[in-house]
Amino acid sequence: MISARGISKVFNHGLPNEFAALHPVSLDVSLHETTVLKGPSGSGKTTLLGLMACMARPTSGRIFLNEREITSLPERFLTEIRRSTFGFIFQQFNLIKGLSALENVMIPAYPTGEKYSILRRRALESLEMFNLGQRADARIEWLSGGEAQRVAIARALINNPAIIIADEPTSHLDSIQSREFIDIMTDLKAKGRTIILASHDPIVYDSGLADRVVEMRDGRIANEIKSS
Amino acid sequence: MALRRSTIFLRTVAGLVLLLAMIFLHASNEVRTSGPLFARKNALVRQLELTDLSIFTEATYTRHLSMADISTPFQDAQMSLDHFPSGALVEPPPHLLRNHAQLD
Amino acid sequence: MPNLIERQRHIIDFTLSSLLRRKGKNCALLLVYTLIVFILASVLFFTHALKREAALLLNEAPEIIVQRTLAGRYQTIPIAWSDRILKINGVISVRPRLWGYHFDSAFKANYTLTVPAGNPPQQGSIDIGSGISMMRGANRGDIIAFTGHDGIPRSFKIRNILEHESQLLANDLILLSEEDYRDFTGIPADQATDLALRVRNSREYGIIAEKITRIYPDTRPIVRTEILRTYDALFGWRSGLLIVIFSAAILAFVIFAWEKATGLSAEERREIGILKAVGWETSDILLMKFWEGTVISLTAFLVGIILAYLHVFFTSSALFAPVLKGWSTLYPAFPLTPFLDLGQVATLFFLTVVPYTITTIVPSWRAATIDPDAVMR
């Protein structure tokens, strides 16, 4: 369970361009369900997602991961938690250009010092799972949008995280690719992973994937719909 | 499976370090076995009463650097560069630049 | 422990892949860097070996040479003066040295004429240095002619060619008998070029030199320590345009390397953000940057040093020859004994590898500490 207690985020604090992306918000996310944060751009959903996934510290408030307070942990531990607990899928995929698909998938596991042969095999298996076995040595910029998205998913899974975080995962995909993505996520959910998405794409929040949709607006939680 | 890049790099560095070590060994071996060579050369220095190395032969003061007098090499000023290229490489002997306290 | 090594190797893998993306640029950088190390190391190796060689060889030079000066110029010295000098306490022997130069107008070369202290050639025959032998194509038993001071050519039979190994000492020498020398140069029988003294105790050099100048105020004694000091100062860092020009080249490289290493592009900044977001720590990023600097600088250092050694001690510094040669016609091939100074190699390491690596790491420091959520914005 991830519990956010009155967290807020202010960017450029104290500067003329100070901007409050998130007003104090409290939210509990259960690890047994799939949560979708829904809302227009600028509604604070990406910021909330980032804070819950230990990507940044809130300006105020506290976050608990399985009852452990993580807001005040030093950077090293925070990184450790981020690496082992969360897998990230970004809006712009954020793959590293010039490197092969295989290398991109392996990157999150590099700091763990896992044995090369084992890591490589796992990465290849993961790529094969997404029908990318043939493309393992291809450079990122040679891949199509859908392929790049699947490489990004494979990368998110390499450290075997309990929680998958996806920020606007379908914004660069067409409808067919978006449905493919939903299928993959549904599959991962069935395998027991927790998924938290931020999206304003109806394909995502109207799909059967979401157990819970949290609607956000202007940095606040506006509405909550729980399916089932 | 192709070799890992780090393997190629580390092997290259290891190879280069090994080569460097061989160079040091070669150098120390050459120096160690140069005794008789230096004995022969030293004998020549004694026999011919040599005072200088035969590196720059174009001018008297560069051929016999240590024997140069004050006026020849630096006709105009003590540190003026002359028209021989070697003049750009060698300094005037230190004992010409600094006065010998006991001799003045 | 194996984990730590594997982590380093993963990061090296990543760094190399990342460097290979700009293959042309990084290869050019590596090449220029290697060239700089190569030239710098060649200069250091060459000068150090030459200085050591000079120190070891000239340690056997006469303890004191007494020159006579006349109106500030160097003159022949009366042999009779040696009697009074010999009476000075501590002087074992005084020997008049006969030497001088001969300009061979046919070959535009300067030779050094010397009458050896031991084993002089008989009248009518000479020993020549290997440089002269090679240039004139003259061998043992050949007859060779030089024009004397009076314009009349004299022919000599070559008794011996001085060993090739002693090129650095005897490349341009012509050894001849005293009679031939005086006949050839016209120096009167009671005069010598200078006087060579053997002295018992090295601590007396100064006192003896002082006594000589008191007896003969127009002489200039040159003490062996001064000879050694002259060669120790040879190719000192202050001497020579070479160093000036070279330091300009180094500065240019520093600017280039600085530009290359510090110019953290928006692209690189974004990549650091991505790496942090997917679970790399700040220390992992810095480690990656450390390897980025090390891969280039260490390779360049090792290759440069090895090539420099081969250049100086196997090709006799072939690339420096045009600079050192100047306008002299006779030039030794520098078969130097490879005296290496480990301290110098270490200094070179700290002057090349360390600064480059640091200039690679430092600018990424700030980028490495950004919040990883920057890539989400």
Percent of residues in beta strands of chain B? under 5%
In N-to-C order, the SSE pattern of chain B is HHHH
Biggest interface pair, counts: B-C, 64 and 96 residues
Query: Secondary-structure element order of chain A, as H and E?
Result: EEEHEEHEHHHEHEHEE
Count of individual helical segments of chain A: 7
What does this structure look like?
The complex is a heterotrimer of chains A (228), B (104) and C (377). Helix content of chain A is 32%, strand content 27%. Chain A has 228 residues and is an alpha/beta fold. Chain A has a single domain, classed as P-loop containing nucleotide triphosphate hydrolases (Rossmann fold). The mean pLDDT of chain A is 89. The termini of chain B are far apart. Chain B has helices at 5-32, 35-48, 60-63, 94-97. Chain B has 104 residues and is mainly α. Among the domains of chain B are: 5-36; 60-97, no CATH class. Chain C is α+β, with helices and mostly antiparallel strands and 377 residues long. Chain C has 2 domains: 2-58 and 235-376, no CATH class; 99-186, Barwin-like endoglucanases. In chain C, the strands form 3 sheets. Chain C has a 6-stranded mixed β-sheet with strand order 5-6-10-7-9-8. In chain C, strands 1, 2, 4, 12 and 13 form a 5-stranded antiparallel β-sheet that branches. In chain C, helix 1 packs across helix 11, helix 9 (241-262) runs parallel beside helix 13 and helix 11 (282-314) packs antiparallel against helix 13. The radius of gyration of chain C is 31 Å and the shape is elongated. Chains in contact: A-C, B-C. At the B-C interface, helix 1 and helix 2 of B face helix 1, helix 2, strand 1, strand 6 and helix 5 of C.
